[in-house]
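[Meeting: bench + compute handoff]

Bench side (C.D.) handed over the final construct sequence. Compute side (W.E.) agreed to return the predicted structure before the next meeting so the bench team could plan truncations. Sequence as handed over:
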Amino acid sequence: MKARKVPLRKCVGCGEQKPKKDLIRVVKNKDGELLVDFTGKANGRGAYICPSIECLKTAQKRKALNRALECEISDEIFERLEQELKNDGK
């Protein structure tokens, strides 16, 4: 039996390629809202980030998430993302 290929995605924070299921997807939908998509199936433009605060801070400092989602992201959205990462890590 042939082994299934594991889809890889690149973290916008650290730049490492990891399996898609190990990363968290941040989505900008057509209304311009930013959502954290834990299912990986929400419609919209997505960017992947490791479930660590360090990667989020790096992405914020380098404006990598802004480039990936092609929009300006405010500090309060980064704070909300950080809270959701902390809550998900329970």
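W.E. noted at the follow-up: Residues 15 and 43 are 23 Å apart (CA to CA). C.D. will use this when planning the next construct.
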